[in-house]
Write a structure and sequence with these properties.
mainly beta; seven-stranded mixed beta sheet; four-stranded antiparallel beta sheet; globular
């Protein structure tokens, strides 16, 4: 079955960096686009960034553009989110997601807390 497992979250001071990882299994990773979403307490889940199956196309939400970088390794079946210049408003649970044969799958998420 499809499994997405995130790691790399934690507590960081404002201005710091974190790198999130998403280990994927149970589907043909190299043929599927991947996305990162986040959900802050009391707020709806929002798209952070997406990357095409081959990695050639990437898109970012306006609020992270220039600070976050999405990438993937199709040999390791993993996706990454490099987060730089973190702000307190980036505090949220971050989840990776894949759309596989019309069904969207989510990981359990990893908590990112940015202290000001």
């Amino acid at each position: 079955q499809v499994q997405l497992v995130e790691s790399g979250g934690g507590l960081v001071q404002a201005g710091g960096s974190l790198r999130l990882s998403c280990a994927a299994s149970g589907f043909t990773f190299s043929t599927n686009a991947m996305s990162w979403y986040r959900q802050a307490p009391g707020k709806e889940r929002e798209l952070v960034a997406g990357i095409s199956s081959g990695g050639g196309n990437r898109n970012y939400a306006a609020f992270v553009k220039g600070r976050f970088i999405i990438s993937r390794d199709n040999v390791k079946n993993a996706a990454y989110l490099q987060m730089n210049s973190l702000k307190s408003e980036d505090t949220a649970v971050y989840s990776c997601s894949a759309l596989v044969i019309g069904v969207r799958y989510w990981g359990q998420g990893t908590q990112v807390t940015v202290s000001s």
